[in-house]
Every structure is written in structure tokens, then in C-alpha cells.
Amino acid sequence: MPNRNKVTLLLAGGQVVHRKSATPTEPTENIPLTREEVEAALGDVAQEVEIMEWSFQPISHYSLRMCSDLVQLAASQVKEGAQGVVITFDTQALTEFAYFADQVWSFPQPLIFTGSLLYSGLPGSETALNLTQSVQAALSESCWGQGVIVCIQDRGYAASEIHQLSNDNRSGLLLSPCGPLFEFSMPLGELRCLRKNNRNVLWNTDTVPARSIEIVEAFIGGGDLLLNALLEKHINELDGLVVGGFGNGDVPPSWVPLLRNFLRADVPVVLASRCLTGRVQRCADFEGSATRLLEMGLISAGSLSTRQARIRLALGLGGGLEGSALKNYMKGE
After folding, report:
1. If you classify domain 213-330 with CATH, what class do you get?
2. Pairing mode of beta strands 7-11, 18-20
3. Counting beta carbons within 10 angstroms of the beta carbon of residue 163, is it exposed (0 to 12), middle (13 to 18) or buried (19 or more)?
4. Which superfamily does CATH assign the domain made up of 7-193 to?
5. Tens-digit pLDDT profile for the chain (333 aa)?
């Protein structure tokens, strides 16, 4: 086993392992780094790493099934003896993919995601820093049993706790209300554990997520056309629906009969807050309020974001949950 006791570095794209073309006629072309360039960025830790290329497709081409395939590949590396796995990914959806992986990663070995806003070779690029620190984290015993971790800019965050805040500002890239799990102290760059991540994993990497879960978020005076289109054109294709209500989970009253029709068609409907770190709350009682929607049969997503709720619902349905079991799972019970 060539990767036994090593860290597998899965190159799945992202600016962190791309550089811009120097050709004047093709200024926007993104060129994947060669294996030699990646090894050079890793420096001394390169000898601890087995590099594998997976896919350099744009993130907009991905599906949950593709995410599942990549996590299964990471799992196969652990089964073959890898001490941990690092995956490079596009920061545009890194937190979403990492959250999915965290829901099915049942191994004690760490699975680390990393990325960068800047392309390799540009002034201020963090390719060497983020790749090296991610490998160091994957080699660290303090990261075992912590689940999936996003390692960027000297810190490691629990994948279940972070959100993307910005796409053009490194200082505001990630939002984690709970703070990091660890940080690299300078100038020696030693990993210092700050806290432990308590997690309960129900699924494993063989779980196949449901395919068609849509999100519709509430906004003032609209949304009816979207819900009607789903009901009239795609109800037979729909596995589940996530509704992102206003702050507490409230929606326009015109949505109520439409949502009731989804329930009548046996489509599970999950209610989340459209706020990035919000929570569904029964704060009032009126037509379209979260109170009445939950009484009607919608499933509370608790403090999950709409994207987290979509991933969790896809896995719950893929795992065969229904009724009270699905409701408890969506609440984290």
C-alpha cells in the first residue's frame, strides 16, 4: 500500500491548485498546477503526501452525487492505510461540500478541506500555506475524531459550524460563530488545539443522497410563481423541498395553500430560516407564521441554514427516514 501512514492529497480543483495563464490572448484561462508544482508548494511535508488528481470541473457542474463519489474516494484511501485525507476545493462552495462530507464521514482519521481565494502564483497567494497546514492537520493526532475540518489561513474549523461570508475578501471568507477548533501559532507554526468537536454521525460514505431537493426562499411579495411551477411541472420529480422563511421561518400567507399541496403529494417540506445563522422559532401565530406551518406538517430545520437543511434532508431521505424519524433527524436528535 503506497499511501500507508501518509496523507492523501486529493486535487479536486479550486484556485489553490490553479494558476492563471500567462498568455496575453487567454488572460482568463485557469491552468491546473502540475504534480511538481504542488510538491514544491508542500515543501518538506511533500514526503508525507500521496497526490491524486480527481476532477477540475467548475463547481457549478457538481451535484450531490458527485460529492458523494469524491467522499467515497477519500474513504477508500483511509481503508488502504492513509493517515488522513486533504481535499482541495473551490471556495465558492467549499463550506457546502464540507458540510455534506461531515454528515457521512464516520472514520476517526481527519478529512481536511482547503482552498484559497487567490490563484497560485499571484501576490499574496496562500497555496503553500494552506496546503502545508492542511497536511500538518491531517498528520496531527489532535485532529482524529474531529470529523471534517476546513483548514484555511492558520485555522481549522468544524465543517458543521462554518458559513461562507464573502467571495472577494480573505478576512471575511468564513464565518464560524463557535470559533476554530485549532490554530497554528507563529512563528514556529505549531498546531494548537483550542477545543473538541462533539459530533454524532448517523450515516456512512455509502449513503446515497436523494437527487431532487429544491430550495425556495421567502422574499417580500413573491415566490408564488416558483412554488406553482414546482407543483405543476415537477411535483413527480421532487424528492423534497426546503423553504427558507423570513428570520423566524415565516412566509407570505399566499404560500400556505401551495405548501399544503406539497404535503398532500407526500413531498416532505422542511422549514428553515433564510438567515445565515438563524433559527426557526414559534414567536407569533398568524397565517404563514412558523407556528402554523409547523402545526400544518412542515419539518423544522432548527438552526440549520437552507443549504445545510437541503443536504441533511437529501441524506435523510436517501437513508430511508420518514415520519417522526425524519423530523428528529432534521432537528439533530
Report:
1. alpha beta
2. unpaired
3. middle
4. L-asparaginase, N-terminal domain (3.40.50.1170)
5. 556 789 999 999 999 999 887 665 555 678 899 999 999 999 999 999 999 999 888 888 889 999 999 999 999 999 999 999 999 999 999 999 999 999 999 999 999 999 999 999 888 899 999 999 999 999 999 999 999 999 998 999 999 999 988 888 887 788 888 999 999 998 778 999 999 998 888 899 999 999 999 999 999 988 999 999 999 988 999 999 999 999 999 999 999 999 999 999 999 999 999 998 899 999 999 999 999 999 999 999 999 999 999 999 999 999 999 999 999 999 875
